[in-house]
Amino acid sequence: MNINQEQLLMFQTVIETGSFSAAARKLGKVPSAVSMSIANLEIDLNLNLFERIGREPKPTSAAMVLYEKTQQLLIEINQWKQHAHALSTGLESTLNIVVVSELLHTNWTDYITLLEQHFPNLTINIFSAPQEDALQMLLDQSAQLALMFEREQLDSREQFVELKREALVPVIAQGHALAQFEQISFEQMVQTRQIVVASRDHSIKPELLFSKDYWRTDNHHSACMMIIRNLGWGVLPLEMFNENPELKKKLKVLELYDFTPKFEYYVDLVWSRESELGVAARFLIEHIRQQRQQPRKSD
Known about the structure:
The chain is of the alpha/beta class. The protein folds into 3 domains: 5-89, Arc Repressor Mutant, subunit A; 94-164 and 266-293, 3-Layer(aba) Sandwich (D-Maltodextrin-Binding Protein, domain 2); 165-264, D-Maltodextrin-Binding Protein, domain 2. It is built from 11 helices and 11 strands. It has helices at residues 5-17, 20-27, 31-45, 61-88, 109-118, 131-139, 186-190, 220-228, 238-243, 247-250, 279-293, and strands spanning 50-51, 58-59, 94-100, 123-129, 145-149, 158-173, 194-197, 214-217, 233-237, 251-253, 263-272. Strands 3, 4, 5, 6, 7, 8, 9, 10 and 11 form a 9-stranded mixed sheet that branches. Strands 1-2 form a two-stranded antiparallel sheet. Helix 5 (109-118) links the parallel strand 3 and strand 4 (123-129). Helix 1 crosses helix 2 (20-27), helix 1 (5-17) packs across helix 3 (31-45) and helix 2 crosses helix 3 (31-45). Residues 1-60 form the HTH lysR-type domain.
């Protein structure tokens, strides 16, 4: 059985137009070519697709069943061709992006939407991980791009472009003893258990770790729940409060005598110099670079 796309298209068009001649006009072919193509299709399938009684062919019940399948099959064939063409021009088959846990409340989905609009055939996988794990995913090339906070020390394999600034704030449950003070000292804070978002690898020291006694979790959602349950204080994205005003009733931002407890970090789009990036990844990097060159409101 050797059925090709042109035969399927002719078969579909004959049913939709109601005749071989009308299908030929629509497809820019002579009627005999359409008639012969359908006859060959019937031979290949060993099925009678049209009753040739009267002036116009009448589809059989078998033809109508196949017609429903043909529409979807032609769509899939066209998608397959488009994807193959995209791959031939350098589009990666899959783009893995890791988003640092604390940044899940930002507008990172805007970038994914942009990619989908320009590369509809691209498969995109999104992962969430603590900062240290996100960097490791880049370096071992299990992810091609990462949205993460600026690092105090850059690995020589990293390359990045800045996106924006994000604020993190130290918070504690409203019912905790420290919440009763207008301000606390840094010493009081470090003597209280901290809930810290950290790598799953316990050999890696967490960033933003201050307390001597601390518990670890790998995402800020679970950290938030633990803090609400009065298990310790922690550092959470300020954006969480903007998106969920109910948190303000449950958590208090700690005010310190010693310094302003608001940590502002640049958010970077990061990739590895050792990775061979595809068209979509390079497109997003270039898009962000061009955005940075345009006049913009302060973050």
